[in-house]
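Section 3.1: Structural characterization of target chains.
Under the original work plan, the team committed to producing a structural model for every single-chain target entering the pipeline before any wet-lab resources were allocated. The record below documents one such target. The sequence was received from the expression subgroup and is listed exactly as submitted; it comprises 80 residues.
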Amino acid sequence: MDSYRKSHMGSGRGERYDADHAAKMDTYIWDAFIKDYLNAQFAICAEKGAARHLDFACGTGRVLKVGRLGAEQLIVAQRV
């Protein structure tokens, strides 16, 4: 039987891991923790009168999708 170390080496192993596990874990962490945390933070901003949200390197834009309801203006800074 191959060792654990050897089972995680080799051509295409990283790509297989990403395809099988990484996206699922990212979605779980987002849904279970991050989205609720962001909603709470954006609620605090709204209570304090913040009308604009700025996101640097926004990538997919999902952070501002959470915050869009409490903002009058969304500002995105993304280098392409």
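The chain has one domain: 13-77.
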